[in-house]
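Exercise 7b. Backbone tokens:
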């Protein structure tokens, strides 16, 4: 009889003494796009990302703030390493602690990229030069956007659907003639008959 109240008291003390669990997950999505009059429909998404944050049940916006920070780190790493022709570690699935990358994927299939399928700079060049077969120098805008519920804009107050967007470069210069010569749009068929 005396064991039961002591057991209850011990369980109660254990429950009060244990830290609160990070028991919910909320997330945001992001993309990097290229814009300009040379671009099909004036805007093409190049890469899409999804991240989530974990937090206490009573703080869902804190989860989204962590997801937002994770996405901003990935976007920054992609832009800084755009000439590395690889997806940076900050964008790899599972990276992060209380904010983690869920996935990163390229939009569309882009064959013939000179530096392989994971090259952000090659995808920008391809979208600017290939659909219209440009051979001159063009300038495009490279932009990112992060969307989701409250917290995904980088602040926890405001509307239900929030957006954080900004330019990575407003006049990214591309010499389409040089890129065409390097094969960004695929090989040019040669005549076989005289």
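Sequence design result:
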């Amino acid at each position: 009889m005396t064991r039961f109240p002591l057991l209850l008291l011990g369980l109660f003390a254990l429950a009060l003494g244990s830290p609160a669990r990070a028991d919910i997950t909320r997330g945001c999505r992001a993309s990097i796009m290229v814009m300009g009059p040379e671009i099909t429909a004036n805007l093409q998404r190049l890469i899409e990302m999804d991240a989530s944050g974990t937090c206490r049940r009573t703080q869902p916006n804190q989860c989204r703030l962590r997801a937002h920070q994770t996405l901003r780190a990935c976007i920054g790493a992609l832009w800084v390493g755009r000439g590395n022709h690889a997806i940076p570690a900050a964008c790899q699935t599972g990276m992060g602690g209380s904010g983690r990358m869920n996935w990163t994927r390229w939009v569309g299939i882009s064959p013939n990229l000179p530096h392989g399928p994971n090259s952000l700079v090659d995808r920008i060049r391809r979208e600017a030069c290939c659909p219209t077969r440009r051979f001159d120098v063009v300038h495009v805008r490279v932009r990112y956007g992060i969307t989701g519920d409250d917290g995904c804009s980088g602040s926890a107050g405001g509307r239900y659907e929030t957006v954080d967007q900004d330019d990575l470069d407003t006049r990214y210069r591309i010499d389409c003639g040089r890129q065409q010569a390097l094969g960004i749009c695929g090989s040019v068929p040669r005549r076989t008959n005289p």
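Instructor comment: The helical segments are 3-17, 60-80, 120-129, 176-182. The beta strands are 24-35, 43-55, 99-106, 137-148, 162-175.
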